[in-house]
User: Fold these one by one.
Assistant:
Number 1:
Amino acid sequence: MAAMHCKDFWLFSSEWLEGDRNPAAIAHLAGCPACRALITDLESIRNSAHLLLEEEPPARIWPAIKSQLEKEGLIRQPKKSFLERLFPATAFRPALAGAYLSFLIIAAAALGFHMNSVHSAEQQSLWLANAQDAITPVATELGSAERKTLPALQAPGNDITATLNHNLAIVDNMISLCEKGVRQDPQNEMMRDYLYSAYQQKADLLAAAADSEGR
Amino acid sequence: MGIVARTRRIENGELPEADAIRLAQQGDAAAFERLYQLHHRRVYSLCLRMVGNTAEAEDLTQEAFLQLFRKISTFRGESAFSTWLHRLAVNVVLMRLRKKTGSETSLEEVTEPDEESGGPRKDFGAPDLGLSGSIDRVNLQRAIDQLPAGYKAVFVLHDVQGYEHNEIAHIMGCSIGNSKSQLHKARMRLRDLLHEVERQRARDERQAFKDAAGKD
């Protein structure tokens, strides 16, 4: 084993701090107070670096950055869905979203019922077309709301989730049957009534699922 | 993920970094803020340790994040996001230091080995006072302030912030060996500076003792 001199040990000191215990370095250190002092100092410096903890910057930095990003056009507002454009508060309140869906369904139902007071075939066709136009966005939004609440509906080992899923399956089956009935006989008042009620129930269930996710 | 759930996760600070990066690349305001929240302490602390001045550190933090967000669409994930961000921040700080000193300090130049400072001290072999227990936060920061920019950056990244040499090499754009060498020299220089503080303190104490004795 070649003897290590002070100059060599100084160059080797970083490896020593990293845990490298070269036998020549051990031998040198045993007989050299200056190099022992060096190692003690370097260890103190390294350990003292932890005194310089992370510091919290002033809160004003982020607003300044955001303002600059907005000026430069780098920040855009998120795209809003049909529902959010019509009723912005629903973006943060799933229960309100459900209530709004319910409102749409009731409106669509009212449109359908109104058809009964219209007698001519031409008027009936027009009202039927209007009712269909009113239902389409409702059905689309129901589908969208269902996709958004999927995480809540897939939460494992939860009694509420299991009940919601069970009830949703029943309502989906009902919707499917009613939609088929309405397609076959668009003027069947009772079938339309059932369909609107099923939509209403599904909206309520999805709102409940979204609320359970938020808790 | 729907907008409701995403907004809620961002508000709760739960959005993972990878999702925040992807959304920020699309210009999502909440994602920008999430990335800022995830990294602002480390970036600010790095700037503060490098310049030793809170007002300037604040300004540099702002500049580093602005550069980050301007370039975020180019981030492809080849390196860790924090490494990429720290590289930007170190560059911003070094550019500022270069402007202040008026010298042509570049990232490459500040990491070049310095033979003079790499060798043993001139008073090698002289009795040492020993630093153990005498290093406080203020003295250490003052000593760091006096380091050359390259030494300072490597010391702060490695010993203060805990980065490994391979990460520092990536951040600083140098080799791993160069990072190790810079760290060694930074610690050696800090030792000299801290010893100087100790010697000055001893001189002050002696002078105070003499002054007190003279009055008696």
Note: Residues 114-215 of chain B form a domain with the Arc Repressor Mutant, subunit A fold (CATH 1.10.10.10).
Number 2:
Amino acid sequence: MDNTLIDSMKKSFGKSLLYTLPMFLITFLFLTGGRPDFSNPASGFAFLITFLGVNVLYFLMHFTGKTDRFRAIIFIIFAVSLSFTLIKNMVEIRSSMSFSQADIVECKIPFCHLVIPMMIIPAAFTKSIIFPGSIIGGFANISSMLVLWLIATLVLGRGFCSWGCFYGGWDDGFSRIRKKPLIKKLSDYWKWMPFAVLLMVALTAALTLIPTYCDWICPFKAVTEFEQVTNVESAAKAGVFISLFGGLVVVLPVLTRRRTQCSFLCPLGAINTISNKVTPFTIKIDKKACNECLKCVEVCPLYALTPEGVKSGNVSVFCSKCGKCVDACSKKAIHYGIKGIPAGTMKNFSRNLFLFVSFLFIAVFSSGSIIFTLTGLFKLIF
Amino acid sequence: MKKIKIVAGITWAFICLILIIILFPGLNSFSVSAARLPFMKINPNFTGGEVVQQVATEGCTLDIRRPVFDGLFRDRKRGFVQIDWRGNIPDTITDTIDYNLDKIPDFRIIIDRISSRTSLVPLNAKVKDVAVSTSTSYGWALRVGIQK
């Protein structure tokens, strides 16, 4: 290996370490409150692995210059561990993955961000939330989840779907199983479908005052909690949840290498698409550097890039800033940017700032459930 | 203009950075503040509405809630009334309920808690059916479907 390469690697290593230091300190402070507790060996060890793991991933993002491959690791682990946390919580409290009539009557159902599209109209007209959860206190309360989503979506826009959503990791994970897609062409008109779903669930929820998406459609009920199957209606609902999970979260992502549930169904994704107009962070295309190979269009998991868009230097509002296109571009023509800064300029500054903000969010948001899952696994093994 | 746009973009990005940094340490206080917003209460269709009548018997309290007909813009034709039993509840609950406070019994309810069997005897034409009858962490909850 020649000396210049070794020197540049040393320089890059030192620089990446320097970039990681603030993340290391802040995540340590946020996860431990400044006082790490190792009194329980299993949870202490789980904390150590999680804390070091997230910081190694952040370091590697800087050291290798690649974003998506390391983001995907924490994103997928987050999805799996959150489902584990929810299910373990349900099983410990209720001895079952399903919730009962009593849980609804007592408003004990954990709240997730997918309810938000349905609660807007009723909240405006009835001044109340149409969900049998707890406003404050308890597991996954409405107030905390609302604050988390609101700030994250303001800061990241649809970036929330790739850096914050604890369900997105499921179809992201399945979309990476095959090296090449079996279904190469799916009409990208389907990407407007979430707006239709949003309209439908918002209206039906307003009319019935029931969160209809959660009640009838949500595919992630299959990996979290669902209504106890006691009659034909609840059996039909369970059938819908499992079919949609199997179809849109497992089979289609494997066949297309795209995140089909996020692209074609999720109503919150539609709202986050609108919030992409507010966030300062964006993906930019430097037309001067672009050779229009369209590799970015090919790899985009959310149909956010089109050949016409790339040629005119535009990334659509469907972009979730996952970084797959940035990693794929051999000319470094597509890059993270900040609104107002022209494409092709201040690339490193924009990327570093975006990575710090988005990674800090997912690192802190996900660590609790990852630690919980690892602790559970250690207790099971040892 | 170009410079103003750049400065505005970077300023907004730094504000976002600060927002994310304060989000997690401040989450509890932000959540408490958000919980005080006027729309931050659970809809009566889920909570069962406010308690309007409380009847205390030997070691057992009976809470009768207000009938819930709440719709999006106006009341619905069909709703429910929720009754909660708390405390030392007998294995078989037998009660006569006057939910509209007109001093005339509206229905009679018999609940066998062991078999979870619930029998409703309507004494008022507006009383329709048993919507929910379940054991809860505090005792027993019953929702009876009613017409306005």
Note: The first strand of chain A starts at residue 98 and ends at 99.
